[in-house]
Amino acid sequence: MAAHCSPRGHVTINHFHFSFVHYYTGELARLQTEAEQQSFSTQREKQDLEGRLAQAERNTQLSLNSAQQSHLQQLETERRDKEQLCAELTAKCEQIEKRLRGECEDLRTSSQVELQHLQEEMRRLQQDCNAQLLQAENLKQQALSEVEVEKACLSEKLLSLHQEMEAASMETELMRRDFLSRQEQDKTLVCGLQCCLVDKLQVTDAQVEVLLRELQEAQEARDVGRKDLVQARRELRASSEERDAQRKEALELRRSLGDERREKEAVQTSNRELRGAVKRAESDNNSLKRAVEEKEQRLVVLEECKTSHHQETAKLRATLRELERSRLQARRELQELRRQVKTLEGEAAARTQELQELQARVTQEEQREEEAKREAFSLRQKLLESEAGREAALKELEDAERAGQEGLRQHDSAMQESLRRHHDETARLEGALHNAQTQVRELSLRVSLAEEQVQGLGQQLAQSEDTNRDLDQRLAGLVSALRRTLGIRQNGRSLNAGVRGRSLSPWKTRSPVKGIHSQPLRTFQKRDEPAPEGGLAVGGSPRSPSHMEEGDLDAESVRVALCNFQLELKDMQRDRVKPHTRYTHLTHLGKGGEITMEFREKRLGGLYVLFSCRDEGSVNPRLEGAQTSLSLQEEVARRAERERGRLGEEVTRLKSSLQAAGSRSDSERKRLKETCERAEARATRAELSHRSLEGELQRAQRRLADVEAEVGTLQERLATLRKETGFLPFRAEVDRLGGALARTELQEAQLKERVEVMAAQLSESSVSIGAAEEQVAQLQRTLTATEHDRRMLQVRVNLFLFYFSDPIVLHSTFKKMKGEACCRG
């Protein structure tokens, strides 16, 4: 069994061994084929990966080349656009220069015409002044003392004005120094910001270098991957030799392939990110270039506007200086005319009013100074607020940096709107300047018209004074006629002395009209008294020159003066009615006196007949005395009748002169009413212009705040541009933006100067308005003085008429004449 079984077992063992060997050889062959297939697949995948990497490198190179070409094309197109814009801007500049030259020529011609008009007015004023000087040469010696006093007052006034001008110049110098110091501080801030921007640019350059280093590291990693691929090939060759470790090597190869795939994906993602970054950088650069070009265009426009504004301001200042010189010359001539008028005027009761007005003006000036201080303090507070707002804007810069491209676009739109507003505001300010110039011209024309009215009223005053002199001469002739008719000698007491002293005349106790005419006699006495030293006339004193030169009246004071003037006109009309009634009463009394004279003549004739009927022998000496006395009385009566006829003619002539003077006073009153109304309308217009100029000042201050905000926005834009730009060629554009910022600051300073010029024009217009109102007040005072003189002359005429119309007075004079004749017989 054992021998029989052993060969079967051997056969089975051999069969099993053979099957096992066959199985393992098949497995080995299968494994070998699989390994060869896997090696071929890995080689194919490696070749595919290498091809893809090469294709990616080619694609990246092509994209970079295309991007560079597109960038160069954009630069060329932008350069062409810039050249076109430069050509258009040069054409616009030429057009603007032509327009400005035309406007300059127009202004020059208008200024020449105005100068010719002013020279003609100056000549006319000189001629009027010469005529008035010729008229006032007779009274010049009496007014020398007053002129000296007025010269002293005027010198004091000039000294005070010079001191005020020096103080104002000092204040303007301090304001200019403060502005220069603030401008230097702003410049230092801009320099600091530029340094910060340069530092930030350096930081961005460092970041770019870091990114380039990272790219180099990625390339090195790619080279390492290639080396790893070479090592994998070597390992695959070794795997054919080492079949036992094929699985392990296959697993390691799979792991290495997975790592390589991951690295490849990482490289692809990094390439994609780099491409996106490059595209974003290119788009940002393009947008920045466009923004910078737009800003350069805007800055060029702003520079052109600035130059045009500079030229216009220089021309306006020259014209204003010429107008101020002509106005000063006119004021000097007016002052000379006022001095001549002052020599003819005298008002003693106006001193207290002048003192009160001066005190009120001093208080008003103090209030104005306090208001000016308050305004300066408010302006300082506004400047501090603007500085605080600037600091807040600088703080907000950091927040604005975090905003993206949407914020930049919104900012660009806001910049465009602000520039449009700036252009609109400049146009509006130019219109306001033209309006202010037209207002100044209108005010100068009104001042010239007021001066002409003053000259006309001065001529009327001279005419009224001539009429007063004529009336005084006529009154002197009446007094001499009375002396001749009454037979009073020169060594005796004169009639005027008797009337002034109220001597013991026979009609003192029996006059029935004593209560009516006692007050006029007192005024007549005051009128005939000698004038005190200094040349003072009745009811007035020489006006102080400060009252004539200061012109700070308000509209309320003008209205009050107009009301007082209307009341005085009503009183004048009542006083004009009273002399007419008194004249009618005196004419009735004169008729009654004539009747009594006729009755007395008839009685004298009867007495003469009775004396002739008596005995001639017994009453011869008495008859001779009575005849001589009667003949003397008849001669005196005839002489009195002749004088009465002549006095009647004089009274009619005086009545006609009084009517003419009344008509003249009515015309003068109407003219003065018209001038007062014009002055009131001028004051209202001046108030409206003052308010409009104040509104312009407020708008200019708001515009200054807007300009400061624009400066802040420009600084923000500049900072963002310098942070976003990482290339060196854009630094020049950033420097240009810094220059634009400095130009906007200069424009802000120019706007401030224009505001100051407008404020000075406003103050000059208020001064001229005050001077016109003062002239109107002076004319009203002169009118009241002439009315007072006319009243006094009317009182004199009424007194003389009363003296010759009262029968009791005539009876007493005849009795006195009889007594003198008896004494002589």
Automatic annotation (TrEMBL):
Originating species: Denticeps clupeoides (denticle herring)
InterPro entries cross-referenced by the UniProt entry: GOLGB1
Protein biosynthesis found in the keyword field: no
Keyword Electron transport: no
Gene: CROCC2
Bias-annotated ranges (Basic and acidic residues): 641-653
Name this protein carries in UniProt: Rootletin
GO cellular component: Golgi apparatus
Keywords, alphabetical: Coiled coil
Polar residues compositional bias, start-end: 655-664
Superkingdom of the source species: Eukaryota
Renumbered residue ranges of the record's region Disordered: 401-422, 520-550, 641-673
Coiled coil: 39-164, 433-474
